[in-house]
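Shift notes (night). Ran Integrase catalytic domain-containing protein while the centrifuge was going.
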Amino acid sequence: MVDICTRFCLLRPLKDKRAATVVFELVKVFSDFGYPTKLGMDNGSEMKNMIMKLLCESMHIDQRLITPYKASSNGTSERWVQSAKLAIAKSVEGAGHQWDLFTPGKNVMSYEQLIERIDVMSDVVFPAIMDKTNAYVDNMKDKFDKYKNIVKDFEKGAPVMVRFPTLKGSLTPSYMGPYTIVRKTKGGSYVLSDETGLLMDRDYTPSELKAISQDNILNEDDGNHIYEIEGILDHRGTGSNIEYKIRWKGYSQEEDSWLRPEMITHEHIIQQYWRRKLGKDYKP
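Came back to this:
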């Protein structure tokens, strides 16, 4: 067994490779040194079994198995296996058939060496890693800030326009709206409402929104009223002279009226009409 951080290695003789024997010895080692948060192992039956799984689950250990048939993914352990064999061969002095009598338990690193290694890790290695990480993060932040626009938070009640995900034509508007910011979600997206106060059916990311001035919004106090369209019934004219017959939501057919496209705030209503009528998108 080897600690990846300090490379501290423990050797314990086992009478067999049964799952219960391996787990029993692991519990003894963990009781002396503390239980780990992660435990890497190969896919052998002595490691990958129900007893080992229960141990890891009960002690909240993250059990990680290496890639099958790829010993190089467990290179640290394989290297220490080679070193352990050399240490055992030196200890038994030729009595290989009685190795367990000569090596009841052996640490490839002494306790004093372990304490010294821990001090070095705490005083030198970990601070160096932290400094290197902070320098890398600062460098990436500078690169990001240099080439990217930082999107500020939109205030509640602020008017915004929503960008179309794809443009259907060169003369198609890039944005639709206006909408009003209702709130910001925990994920950083925004809940919007339309002119009638109806909440939109999905949230929008900051990159999809563009803030606009309140002066660009029609004000009902100035005599400008906003009505909700139930649907487009028909059209007349062509090109720049085209008009649409509008059915207003909450009004009868006697109140139907003809409007030019620029008087309809939501361009997708027009696109929906042409998709239903022609089976394709409308390109002005």
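Residues 110 and 116 are 10 Å apart (CA to CA). The mean pLDDT is 79.
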